[in-house]
Amino acid sequence: MTENTTPAAPARRRAPAMDPDRRRAMIVTAALPLVIEYGSAVTTAKIARAAGIGEGTIFRVFPDKDALLAACMTEVLRSEDTVAHLESISLDQPLPARLTEAAEVMRGYMSRIGAVAGALAAAGRLERPAAGQSSEDTRLPDREAALATPRAALAALFEPDRGSLRLAPERLADAFQLLLMSAGRPGAPDPLTDRELVTLFLYGALTQHEEAR
Fold it and tell me: What is the pTM assigned to this prediction?
C-alpha cells in the first residue's frame, strides 16, 4: 500500500529589508502628490496607504510629519529634471518658440515648489536660519538657491540671439524667471498662457512701440 504524502510547501522567503535611504525616498515619492493636493492637512495614514506600508514605518524614518514635509520640500526643489528639459529645447527654433517651451517647463517646476512650500508654511514651524545654519536645519526651503541652476539653463536659450538683445542673456533670464514667478501666483484671475507671457516679455504691452524719450 502506497502512502500518500503531500509535499511540504516551500518556506516563504522574506523580502530583503529596504535600506533607510531607499525607504525614505519611497515615502517621499508617495507623499509628494498628496502634499500638493492636501497641503499640511494630509495625514501620515494616507501617506502610508499610498506608499503601501504601515504608518509606523514612516516614523522609523522621519521623527514627525513636519520632517516628512521638509523632505518633500527638499525633493521638489531638485532641479535636475527641469534643467534637463530646458537643455533639451532645440536652439534651432526661433526665440519665441524656445521661450514658450521653457515657460511651460518652469511654470510646472515653480508650481510644484509653491504647493509644497505652502504646506510647510501652514505647518507653522518655519524659522529663519541663524548664522552657520543650513536651511535644512530650520526646515526653511531655500527656493532662491534652487532657482539659480534653471536660470543658467534659461540664459543659454537666449544666447543664439545675443547680437539682437537689449540686455545680456543672464539678465534677461533673470527677468523672464521673475515674470513667470509673478504670473504663477495662486488664485490669479484669467492667467496668461505661456505664449501670451512670452509675447508680453519679448514685445511689451503695445502692438507698436517707441523708445522711451
Answer: 0.73
